[in-house]
Amino acid sequence: MSVADIANGLVSLCKQGKFLDAVNQYYGESIVSVEAFGNEKMPAEMSGIDAIRGKNQWWAENHEVHGLEVAGPYVGDAGFAVKFNLDVTPKMTGQRMTMVEVGWYTVADGKISREEFYYNAPGQ
Amino acid sequence: MSVADIANGLVSLCKQGKFLDAVNQYYGESIVSVEAFGNEKMPAEMSGIDAIRGKNQWWAENHEVHGLEVAGPYVGDAGFAVKFNLDVTPKMTGQRMTMVEVGWYTVADGKISREEFYYNAPGQ
Known about the structure:
Two copies of one chain form a homodimer. By secondary structure, chain A is of the alpha+beta class. Chain A has a single domain (3-119), classed as Nuclear Transport Factor 2, Chain: A. Chain A contains three helices and six strands. The first copy, chain A, has helices spanning 3-15, 19-26, 49-62, and strands spanning 27-34, 45-47, 63-75, 79-90, 97-108, 111-119. Chain A has a six-stranded mixed beta sheet. The first copy, chain A, is globular, with a radius of gyration of 14 Å. The model of chain A has no long low-confidence stretch (mean pLDDT 93). Chains A and B meet through strand 3, strand 4, strand 5 and strand 6 of A and strand 3, strand 4, strand 5 and strand 6 of B.
């Protein structure tokens, strides 16, 4: 599967909110996931497909999604980038917010081997 | 000029640290530039090529660059994305730091019409 195939497949599933399906279909076993911020319970960098499935499940259970726009993918030989515009209410705060993030994905051996998330300030 | 031509040209100039040349060569007159963070003197969103030239000049004069890596571009129909790893000392603080950012560029009529910068936490 080409980088473009993986990129388009991931974007298609994300547009439907099927993040966990995207993980199951396109992520490698040794996936490394890097968030912009971390804390003691949820470190910024996690690795292994089970940990990433757990993070996705935690996110889905703890956020109410009002709106989601997905732009891209922009594709290269080594990977691809996708932009997410999210309108969500984290259950922890109850405060509805918009956030924009770019996912920077690295592909190796036909699977996503690394994802990195980059943020802009909320509301922009 | 295609989106890929612009993307590769910008990356080539950025790798040489020639950010202002990239602005002069590839940016449209009405360019909109969106940083992740702003303040009173330097708002997050600025527009117009003169303002963006001024921002680039300010940045060059106020940062000592020890190292710069540029990854990408990842390219699509509407634009492209580039990742920058920077090792810099802001003159204001004197504290050397690493930062990683992704630039998300929109192309219209053969020129870059919008740039948005997304950040990961320093040191990652």
